Amino acid sequence: MIHKAKKSMGQNFLKSKEALFKMCEAGDVNNNDIVVEIGPGKGVLTEKLLEKAKNVIAIEKDRDLIDILKDKFANEIKEGKLILLNEDILEFNPKTYNLEPETYKIIANIPYNITGSIIRRFLSEVNRPNTMTLLVQKEVAERIVARDNKESILSLSIKAYGEPKYIMKVHKRFFSPSPKVDSAIISINNISNKVFKDKKEEESFFRLIKAGFAHKRKVLRKNLEDLNIKEVGLPYIDEIFNKLEIDTKVRAEDVPFKKWLKIRESFDKNA
Q1: Whole-number Å distance between alpha carbons of 115 and 109
Q2: Could you tell me which residue, 1 or 202, shows the higher pLDDT?
Q3: What one-character DSSP code corresponds to residue 86?
Q4: How far lies 134's CA from each of 165, 205, 245, in Å?
Q5: SS3 of 84, please?
Q6: Which amino acid positions bind S-adenosyl-L-methionine, per UniProt (predicted)?
Q7: Dist. CA 22–CA 247, nearest whole Å
Q8: pLDDT for res 233
């Protein structure tokens, strides 16, 4: 059955054997693992995952591709090794399949247009995965790992839950159809919620970084002055910056993740 990629669904099918190998290697897939695959497409990655994992749950939104996958993996589905779901990944509930927190892995070539939504969805999920290995737009991958040592709301949001790592570039020619930009494989390991002791700290951190990046041309201390925290003013912020050895002229993108945690702690303590 011939399937033409649907632009509306962001379909670009991977055809690099090296990239497939690297994704499985980065995900450290073994025969004890339950792997959730997002958008299996024609099943090239699914095939590799089934060779290594205990079980694979593949979630495909495209009904036409579901029919292709059902034919291709009829035996694996019958054996219960592969669970094939025709649904939207953003509506997938891990609890429905008894996926406890940090007991499964996500490995996927995901559509560019929902990359941020997918990452936020699963990192903030109560029943979050232990690791995520994703093929994403190269520019996004570089931003996630702060390859130029410049942080962003995206990179800080991911570091709050796990450890992102850049694996390799995948040239656009290794996709069908070929997208306009190159891709890259990233992994997010040791995913947990241990950075925050409760929901209040978690919300406070995200409110802080959102305020910090609100106006790119302003230095961080000026952006934080606009934050709605009791008695916040420049003298108060300067005192915190001096204590934490942070330059008062620094911009948000130049402050490393661990310093952001210290700022949040200081603000919360004095709020």
Answers
A1: 10
A2: 202
A3: -
A4: 11, 25, 36
A5: strand
A6: 12, 14, 39, 60, 88, 109
A7: 40
A8: 63
Beta strands in 89-154 (DSSP E): 105-109, 131-137
Q: What is the pLDDT of residues 17-63, one digit of tens each?
A: 999 999 999 999 999 999 999 999 889 999 999 999 999 999 998 89
User: Where do the H-state alpha helices sit in the chain?
Assistant: 17-26, 44-52, 63-72, 74-79, 115-123, 138-144, 153-159, 199-212, 220-225, 234-243, 257-270
Give whole-number Cα distances, 215 to 93, 166, 210, 211, 225, in Å. 36, 28, 10, 8, 12
Q: Of the candidates 179, 31, 205, which has an alpha carbon nearest to the alpha carbon of residue 109?
A: 179
Q: Do domains 7-189 and 199-270 have the same CATH topology?
A: no
Q: Report the predicted TM-score, pTM, of the whole model to 2 decimal places.
A: 0.89
For residue 1, pLDDT over 70 is answered with no
Domain-wise residue ranges, the chain: 7-189, 199-270
Say if residues 168 and 22 touch (Cβ distance below 8 Å).
yes
Annotated binding-site residue numbers for S-adenosyl-L-methionine: 12, 14, 39, 60, 88, 109
Q: pLDDT (tens digit, 9 = 90+) per residue, 233-264? A: 677 888 899 999 999 999 999 999 999 999 99
7-189: CATH class? alpha beta
d(CA 239, CA 209): 19
Binding annotation:
12, 14, 39, 60, 88, 109
